[in-house]
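Notes from the 1:1 (GR / supervisor)

We went over the backlog. Supervisor wanted to see one worked example end to end before approving the batch request, so GR pasted a single chain during the call. The sequence is below; no edits were made to it. Supervisor asked that the structure be written out right there so they could see what the output format looks like.
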Amino acid sequence: MPEQTDMPAHYEDLGSVQTSWREMLLSAVSERTHPFKKPVLTTIGLQGEPKARIVILREFDSEARSIRIHTDARSDKIAEIGKNPSVMLAFYDPVHEIQVQVSGIASAHQSDAYAEAAWKGAAPSSRRAYLAEIEPGTLLSGPASGLPADVEGKIPSEERLEGAQSNFAAIQVVFEQVEWLFLSPNGNRRARFEWRAEQWEGTWLAP
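Structure output shown during the call:
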């Protein structure tokens, strides 16, 4: 862990902590290499077991307390969220050594206005994944992408992508709690923010 001498404002100030996680999430939406771009989504499996996987942050709306990610409509996430919508997204920045855990209620959207807007806003390279001919998690005899041969390694035309939308789902997470952790040789810091009475209430926690 690198030595730190000049401590950031969020080391001692809850308001700065809140500003920190908001700005990091917002930046990650547009910056492909931002460490918060690929958080870990945790759901509760159909048998009650925890399930975790890397996803891509597509949208963050601070005012609505909303995060959007995309997935294949045939994936296990859809059934898991349908049974238990409580989820967590874990983000980590290894350079600044900040972890943010966002907890909330997820809803899966297919063939509605929310999903339609998400689909239209996605790049063709992202939409190509939903042309996969087999369901995620299907057993295979060897390594394969599952994509049709004519789009393997290529960016499909808009016409070719039309058939992919039926396999697309947008997941919205409306979050009600954020936990923040900062690692420092001077002493770690941890805080929690909870949405209560139409406002965020923050408190320090023992790391």
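Supervisor's comment: The CA atoms of residues 100 and 180 lie 5 Å apart.
Batch request approved.
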